Amino acid sequence: MLDLGSSDGSTLCHMYELRPDLKFASVDIAGRPERTPTNTSFARANLESDKLPWPDGSFDGITCMHVVEHLRTMTNLWDEIARLLKPGGRVYVETPGMQSVTTQSPPESLRGKITLNFYDDPTHIHPVPVATLASAAQRVGLVTRRTGRSRNWLFAAAYPFLSLLPVTRRRYVAKLHWLGWSAYLIAERPAA
Q1: Residue 63 placed within a domain
Q2: In a domain, 74, yes or no
Q3: Any domain includes 162
Q4: Strand runs (DSSP E) across the chain, as ranges?
Q5: Which domain holds residue 67?
Q6: For residues 140-150, b (16+ Cβ closer than 10 Å) or e, as one string?
Q7: Residue 83 burial by CB count (10 A; 0-12/13-18/19+): exposed, middle or buried?
Q8: Angle at which helices 153-162 and 169-179 pack, to 10 degrees?
Q9: CA-to-CA distance for 155 and 132, rounded, in angstroms?
Q10: Structural contact between residues 163 and 115, judged by C-beta atoms closer than 8 angstroms
Q11: Which of 4, 63, 140, 191 has the maximal Cβ count within 10 Å?
Q12: Distances in Å between the alpha carbon of 56 and those of 8, 81, 90, 126?
């Protein structure tokens, strides 16, 4: 499993909790994440321009969560995803959905701690519609298997109750899941 844009490593650690039998690899432009599963292979790389250090067909699965909206171009990213996936391998890409552009920003007390409106994060370059992700996947020979909105249903179910309580980061994370704020695409490299 390769995680592109690993940030602080929390996604990798969560995946490790679910599947400790997997071998993990990580890429981030800022350097090795603070936390990673034991023996995680790491490469510091710019996903807009760098070829990643693993051989063709190295991975059964690749994740790329909340990265594409930070890139000026996705051409190299998708070329590398297609090169690195094994036949039958899948990629999961998640990004703020188009509705994030019109979502109201959080209260002043939470600014900088949570992104509700797409432009609350000054490092976001432009929203990326799922149709654009699907076209990019198709360009490199991948087949879109599923698209939708990402929701943790436990958080979403908690939102009506949390909305009655004082303003907290937890309340607004639950709201993101209630709204289905993130969009995703799952694409597959066809088996040979």
Answers
A1: yes
A2: yes
A3: no
A4: 2-4, 25-28, 41-44, 59-65, 85-96, 143-150, 182-188
A5: 46-107+115-151+180-188
A6: bebebeeeeeb
A7: middle
A8: 120
A9: 28
A10: no
A11: 4
A12: 26, 10, 14, 30
Query: Got the DSSP string for 42-82?
Result: EEE--TTTPPPSSPTT-EEEEEEES-GGG-S--HHHHHHHH
Residue 83 belongs to some domain of the structure: yes
Neighbours of 182 (CB within 10 A): 18
* Residue (of 146, 45, 155) closest to 25 by Cα position: 45
- pLDDT (tens place) for every residue of the chain, 192 residues total: 999 999 999 989 999 999 999 999 999 999 999 899 989 999 999 999 999 999 999 999 999 999 999 999 999 999 999 999 999 999 999 999 999 999 999 888 888 888 999 999 999 999 999 999 999 999 999 999 999 999 888 888 999 998 998 888 888 888 888 888 999 999 999 997
Strand 2-4 and strand 59-65: the pairing is: parallel
* Cross-strand partners of 149: 183
Rounded alpha-carbon distances, angstroms, from residue 63 to 26, 59, 75, 107, 162: 10, 11, 16, 31, 30
CATH number for position 130: 3.40.50.150
State the DSSP code for 108.
Answer: G
How many structural domains compose the chain?
Answer: 1
